[in-house]
Predict the structure.
Amino acid sequence: MSKEQLVETIQIALANALANLHTATIAKVTAVNETTINCQPVTSRVVNGVSIPLPEFVDVPPLFMQGGSSYTAHPIAVGDYALLIFTERCFDRWYAGQDNQPPLEFRMHDYSDGVAIVGLLPKGSAITIPNVITQIGDTYQEGNYEHLGNMDQTGDVIQVGDEAKTGDTIINGSLTVVQTKGSDRTTMTGVTVIITSGDVIADGISLKNHTHGGVQPGSGSTGVPQ
C-alpha cells in the first residue's frame, strides 16, 4: 500500500467514525408525555448520496432549570423545536435511579441517549432579545415570593384569600369597595382614618355637603359640615 492509499484509508475510516459520532441535533416535538417528549430530527442523514430522514425519538427527557426542591418548568407543545444533546455513554441505569454504575450498554454518542432543551427557534420566528426579563403566558407559583424594587402592572389583579400588609397604601385614583353579597355594610376592624381632599359618598349621601334635619323642634336643617 502506497503512502497516498494509506492516507486515503485513514481519512475514510475517520469520516465513517465521525458520521456515527452523534453530539447534538435539532428536532421538532411530536408528542408530549407525562415526563418525556417524542421528537423528530429535522435534518436528514445522507447515505451513499441518498437523503434519509431519521426516525422519531421516543421518551426523551426534557431539561428544566432546577435546584434543590425548586424548579422552573415551561409547558411544551407539539411543534416546538428542541436541541437534542447526546451523552457520551448510555445513561439508562442513571435514568432508572442508579448512580456510579457501569453503562447498561457500551454504546457511545448514540441517538438513544439524548436529552432535550426545548425552546430553540428558526430565524423567522425567533424571539427578540429583551433588555429586561420578560415572561409571556400564564404562571403558576407554589412557595414564597420575594420582590425588591418597583413593580409596574397593566391589567386586573384577581385574588382569592386574605392579604397581610405592613406599611402604607397610597392610591392615586378612585377606590371602590364592593360589599359582600347579602351584607348591608362593610366592616373595618380597628381604627380607620380616611383623609381626603375630595368628597366621600355613602349610599348616595355626601359626607362633605350633607345636612341634618330636625335637630331641634322647628329649627329646620343644619348647615353643611365644617
About this structure: The radius of gyration is 34 Å.
